[in-house]
Sequence to fold (180 residues):
Amino acid sequence: MTVTRLGAARLTECAGELADLLTDTVHGGASIGFLAPLDRAEALSWWRSRADAVAAGSLAVWTAREKGADGPGGPVTGTVSLVLPDKPNSRHRAELVKLMVHRRARGRGLGRTLLETAERAAAASGITLLHLDTETDSPAERLYRAAGWTRAGEIPDYAASPSGVLRPTTLYFKHVAPPG
Fold:
């Protein structure tokens, strides 16, 4: 498995694979801001619209690829992003968003690897506090707890699941330290 941070041009090149990952994630029941059925064209458009934020430095996106027969060039099987601060009083924090692992790649530690990648990159760039929200009682919530994230609270009826049912969301945070 190789994990790579994408620049804006590379994100645009990978948008089709990221769209496939996004639709698989939504159709698998994960609550990540979209309703099912998610059309691939809508997912593709959404990923392409992220390129400007990546170019501006307000969004960092990583992808994970399986190793192919000839090296690390296999399909995208996971992604994670950080929304970076845009206000002077928030330069110490970032939001972890859109952690996704394709259903065919789950259960092999990829979610943990992506999470650790984002945490290390945040710390290396001077970020000391990360936060996120996730559907309460979801597999993602179990991952965050196991990775040392602290539960801050729960908001009832915060977001609709992919099927349109309102679900509670749990907020988490984690302090990260610069390397060395």
